[in-house]
Fold this sequence. Notes:
This protein is of the alpha/beta class. The chain has a domain at 15-105: Hexapeptide repeat proteins (UDP N-Acetylglucosamine Acyltransferase, domain 1). Helices cover 16% and strands 22% of the residues. It has helices at residues 128-137, 161-170, 177-180, 198-208, and strands spanning 15-17, 19-22, 27-28, 33-36, 41-44, 49-50, 55-65, 70-71, 76-83, 88-89, 94-96, 105-106, 111-113. The strands form two sheets. Strands 1, 2, 4, 5, 7, 9, 11 and 13 form an eight-stranded parallel β-sheet that branches. A five-stranded parallel β-sheet has the order 3-6-8-10-12, with no helix packed on it.
Amino acid sequence: MHLPLLPPFSNSQVYVQGDVSIDESAAIAPGVIIQADPDCKIIIAAGVCIGMGTIIHAHKGNLEVEAGVILGAGVLLVGTGKIGANACIGAATTVFNASVESCQVVPPGSLLGAKGRQIADTPQATTSEDAANQLESEGFPPESLNGQGIATSDPTTSGKDTPKESAIATTPPTPSGEDTQEEPAPKPPPVGVPVYGQANLNRLLLTLFPHHKSANPPPEDNHSE
């Protein structure tokens, strides 16, 4: 875990304000601030070691540091509570309105105590099924979720139009013009074209050349096509 660097302290003095009791054997580094609000008290027991830049602030109650406690550099103790004997609190740790058990080791950069503000849980996104159920419970059709507008009744419309509208709604849709177009009737087979044969040719020759006799006399009509 990356810990922020502690700024250098130009002031080598220790600041003490309020009702503070410090044992003579306690070791306090430069830049330490010990402050007790009115009607509050701070007790520093024997053998306590307080690192530089540590702030001890009693607020709305008493704050006690028992014998043999080691507070790392940059520790912040705020509020009320008790630091048990021989406990070790790492550097840059914040203890807010909390107590530490005896001989307990707190890692550097830790945060102990009650939070200042409660973060409300972020509401989950409403699913389509939940929205549909909600609309159905409120009397709206589920089709409104698909982007269709919710039909509202016109207050000026009389009740006589209701059966007509329902009849129109129940009437099945008529097929389009392409579907109703009838298929074309099959065309009749073409009439056979007569083929002129030898008999017709002989008749034509007799008509053109009446004095000419054909080698093959024309057949009778009943044999022609």
